[in-house]
Write a structure and sequence with these properties.
Radius of gyration: 19 Å
InterPro entries: DUF1468
Order of helices and strands: HHHHH
Strand content: under 5%
Organism: Phytopseudomonas seleniipraecipitans
Largest sheet: none
Number of strands: 0
Helix content: 55-70%
Structural class: mainly alpha
Protein name: Putative tricarboxylic transport membrane protein
Keywords: Membrane, Transmembrane, Transmembrane helix
Number of helices: 5
Pfam family, one: TctB
Distance between the termini: 54 Å
């Protein structure tokens, strides 16, 4: 029941924030899609997650089945925060693709992916997101150490 209540609250928040984001227009244009596309995309994804919480069948899992907040879980959360901080620090100097590659591999390894799948998913993540944002959405991303490959 608490998941359904959370789903309703999240859906209402997404709708309200979506209305606010829809009316946002920057006084200057720095990219073709504009600044409102990202919040609207995120709010859409969050709204779909909220709808899923509302319509999914209820589970028979009790609250006692939740994993405890032990040292292992806290270490993963702290590692995730450190990986995000390293990603933010390396984003400009290394560029989007190398920083995202390192980020993708580190996150996959953090959640026990094998080296092979971690490297493959890191490459797909970095190159795929670069193509999506830089080429399709025309959002300029830093190339960093790969700037000599710019076409």
């Amino acid at each position: 029941m608490s998941q359904r209540i959370f789903g309703v609250v999240l859906l209402l928040a997404c709708a309200g924030l979506g209305i606010v984001a829809w009316g946002y227009h920057a006084p200057f244009s720095y990219e073709p899609v504009g600044p409102r596309a990202y919040p609207l995309l995120l709010l859409t994804l969050m709204g779909l997650g909220a709808i899923y919480l509302l319509i999914k069948p209820s589970s028979s899992v009790s609250q006692d089945d939740e994993p405890p907040l032990d040292r292992h879980v806290v270490r993963k959360v702290a590692s995730c925060v450190v990986i995000f901080a390293v990603y933010a620090a390396l984003f400009e100097p290394l560029g989007f693709i190398p920083a995202s590659l390192i980020f993708g591999i580190a996150m996959a390894r953090l959640y026990e992916g094998t080296w092979k799948t971690s490297v493959i998913s890191g490459v797909v993540l970095a190159v795929g997101l670069f193509v999506l944002f830089d080429k399709i959405l025309d959002v300029p991303l830093p190339l960093g150490i790969l700037s000599s490959l710019e076409i």
